[in-house]
Amino acid sequence: MPQKLPALGPRAANAFGQRTGPALAAEHQKSIIAAEVLEMEELILQGNRPYVEDVLNQDRIAAGLPAQNLIGKLEALQEVSRSQKAKIQALQSGMTAEETRKFFQEALEAMPNPFAAEAGLLKGVKESVDSLDKSYGTLAAAGAGDGGAAMAEAANVLLKGLEDTTKATDRLQKKLAEVVDAAENPARDAELLALKERIEAAGAYTKERLQEQKEKHDTEVKHMKALYGADMRHIRDLHAADARTTAAEASSAQKRLQDKVADLEARLSYESSTVQKNERQCREALQTANSLQEELGRTRATIEAQNLTIAENASSRETLVGNYREAIGVLRVRRVEKVAELKLAEAALEKLRKEQDELRANYSNALREKEETAKKALEAMKGEFEKELEKLRGQLSAADQNTEVSRFRGELEAVRRDKTQLNSEKAELERELTELRAERTREMPLRPTLSSREQQLPATPLPVPSFTNALMGPPESTPSGSGRRKGSNLESPKDKLFKGYTSPYTSPYGSRAVSVFEDSDEETPAGPVGSAGGLAATPGPSFSSPSSAGGLAATPGSAFSAGSLAATPGISSAGGLIPILPRAAAPVPVLGGASLRLLAAAGPVLGGVSPSSVSGSLPGFAAAPTSFLAGSFAAIAAAPAPGLVGSPYMMPTPVEFVAAGSLKSGNIAVSVSAGVIDLTNTKIAAWKARARGNHNSEELWAQPNSKKNCCVAVKYMKVKEPDWPPNTYYNPADTDPEFACPICLNRGSPCVWSRGDSIPRVLPLPPYARTAGANPQSMGYYIAQ
Ligand SMILES: [Zn+2]
After folding, report:
1. Could you report the per-residue pLDDT of 154-168, keeping only the tens digit for each?
2. Which of 123, 203, 578, 648 has the least C-beta neighbours within 10 A?
3. What is the mean pLDDT of residues 705-715?
4. pLDDT tens profile 188-218
């Protein structure tokens, strides 16, 4: 019969208290089993220990530690833990990825930048080029303008800039050459290569170490796993053996084992996480190394690109420098040209200035010379003029005092001789007159004789008798105007005789006529007579003075009164009268006086007794003083002109103007008032028109073949007996009248007489009808004003 034993497993606490046989037997069995289990465990441990000790000592030897006798399981575990800890510490004390990157960065930064200096130089060159451009612009602007100085200045500035630029460029080029040389230096490449190798080596080393670590960990883990597996198997065996032990013991032992396993698992998981962490770190480090390598490659590429750029820049800079040098050369040439031009311009300016100064000096000299020459010429002219004047004065006085006077005296003597002859003729005539008176008829007009005046012709003038009744009495005051016109005997024979002398021209005394009109103031028209009387009144004393020539010379005005002029045919026959005016210079009256005296003597001859005998001498006589007077006065005195004059010979149909004397034998004026000439021209034209109207040739305008004894104007009246206005001087029967007819006088037209084949003549007005001081060059001498 099988023995029944208590069930295995934990027993009650009092189980050993039951001191029964079976109970004791069971307890004994159990104690044997437990002892055997323990012995087995001890045996396992003892059997595994050398392997664990060997593994752990290997790590210790690798870490430089002495091998140990790891007798206990705990000691072994402790060693495992320690070695793991030491490994981790060693890894941690090694280079981290961050540190590695930093290291490389620092190493890169520590590498010197070889292009810093070049960059500065390049900047300098750029600035120089900019300033050069600016300067060139300034120069161009100055060249466009005209400021020579500004241009020169700008050129200088530009040149300086160019020189600076050239220097800077040279420096840069030099530096660039150096840089290029340095870039081509193999040492640098070697350095770079070394650096690269170093970096690569560092990467490889890190990688290797990491790989080693990984392998080690793998081995360890593998070993640990193997250990764990063995432990587990042992534990399972133990469990199987424990089936014989009590449940309690078994469970406790199981519990302890389970705790151990849990602890080991926890340790294992920790170790594996550590390994994983290490692995990750290794991977990161590897990546970092790779990225560093890439960076290194990029840096290298950049450096190579920079090398290339530097080489290109060097060549382009050389070109630029060449261009600048060329430009500088051109500008230098230009500057030299400009400087030469400037010098030329300055020289030209200097020359011009000199010329200007010379011209100025010449001009002022010339002006001075001209002024002096003009002054000298003026002085010479003045001297000449004075000399001439003096000479003329001398001539004048000499002539006056000597030659002329003596000549005049000689002529006067001749005239006196003639007068004596005339006296005898006159006596004869008087005798004839006496006879004629007895048988005088109206048709036989009395030719005035000088018989009554012969006795009154001494060498010196005598007191003037009054002719009032005889000459100038108005028709009302005379017994009968018509009777007288017909030559009635109502007048006394003496008066009749005097009538021949009504004209002052016939008077041998220049002053007589004036006196006549002066006396007849109350009876004659107020205008002309009044003025004549006034003139006569002023120089009065000279007329009453018997000293004749002397007196006349002393009183200039007297010689030019109307009466005196009228009595001087010689003077009036020439232009010499022009300057002889009442206010003329001193020598004039002297001459006038002389002429007058001479003419006074010649008067009777002109009066009609024997004109032919005197006419021969008169032209010569008239010519001499005329030219003399004209010559001297034209030069000396600028006497006031009497008005416009003209030459009768310039008329379309020339006529002659009687200055003094009768129609047939009177003297002719060479220059006549232009007004008179105009009027005469007009009249002649009208008469020519009438001649044409009468179907006659206009050449017959003066009706030269007419038997009528009258002027042309009266001939055209076509009446047999013209109604003569009342007058005291005109004898219609006189074939050789001396004065214009009263019809023409009243009409204010020239009294023109035809003379057969000879040129027609214009008669002057009777003295009383003339304007005061009139001469042939006055309008009032021929035309009643
Ligand atoms: Zn007339």
Report:
1. 667 767 777 777 787
2. 123
3. 89
4. 667 777 777 777 777 777 778 777 777 877 7
From the CA of 602, how far away is ligand 1's center (Å)? Answer: 28
Angle, vertex CA 755, rays to CA 686 and CA 784, nearest 5 = 55
The predicted structure's pLDDT at residue 418: 78
Taking a C-beta distance cutoff of 8 angstroms, is the pair 778, 671 a contact? no
> What would the two tokens of residue 407 be?
């000549």
Burial class (CB in 10 A: 0-12, 13-18, 19+), 759: middle
More confident residue, 364 or 394: 364
208-239: burial string, b at 16+ Cβ within 10 Å, e else:
eebeebeeebeebeeebeebeeebeebbeebe
Task: Report the candidate in 752, 776, 739, 780 with the shortest Cα–Cα distance to residue 685.
Answer: 752
- Give the C-alpha distances (Å, rounded to integers) separating 737 from 257, 462, 607: 210, 27, 11
Q: In this structure, what token pair is assigned to residue 556?
A: 């200039």
Would you call 696 helix, strand, or coil by DSSP?
Answer: coil
Would you state the pLDDT for residue 782? 94
Contacts of 10 (CB under 8 A, 6+ apart): 246, 247, 248, 249, 250, 251, 252
CA-CA-CA-CA dihedral for 310, 315, 321, 326, to nearest 10: -170
**Residue range 105-132, pLDDT digits in tens:** 887 777 766 666 667 777 777 787 777 7
Give Cα separations from 328 to 152, 342, 403 (angstroms): 15, 20, 105
In this structure, what is the dihedral angle of CA atoms 676, 682, 685, 691, given to the nearest 10 degrees? -90
Question: To which H or E segment does residue 218 belong?
Answer: helix 186-242
> Which one of 134-143, 190-199, 657-666, 701-710 scores highest in mean pLDDT?
657-666
Say if residues 241 and 40 touch (Cβ distance below 8 Å). Answer: yes
CB-based contact 300:192 (threshold 8 Å) = yes
- Of 512, 30, 474, 572, nearest to 247 by C-alpha is 30
DSSP character string of 160-202: HHHHHHHHHHHHHHHHHHHHHHHHT-HHHHHHHHHHHHHHHHH
Question: How far does the centroid of ligand 1 lie from the alpha carbon of residue 747, in Å?
Answer: 9
Distance 712 CA to ligand 1 centre (A): 7
Which of 731, 745, 747 shows the shortest CA–CA distance to 662? 731
CA 749 to centroid of ligand 1, rounded, Å: 8
Walk across the sheet containing 751-755 and list its strands.
667-668, 656-660, 758-763, 751-755
Q: Residue 12 and residue 512: Cα distance in Å, rounded?
A: 226
- H helices then E strands: how many in the chain? 23, 6
304 vs 115: CA distance, rounded Å: 13
Centre of ligand 1 to C-alpha 744, Å, is 4
Distance of CA 472 from the midpoint of ligand 1 (Å):
20
Residues measured by CB to lie within 5 Å of ligand 1, the ion = 711, 741, 744, 751
pLDDT of 359 higher than 50: yes
Residue 363, Ramachandran bin (φ over 0: left; ψ between -120 and 50: alpha; else beta): alpha
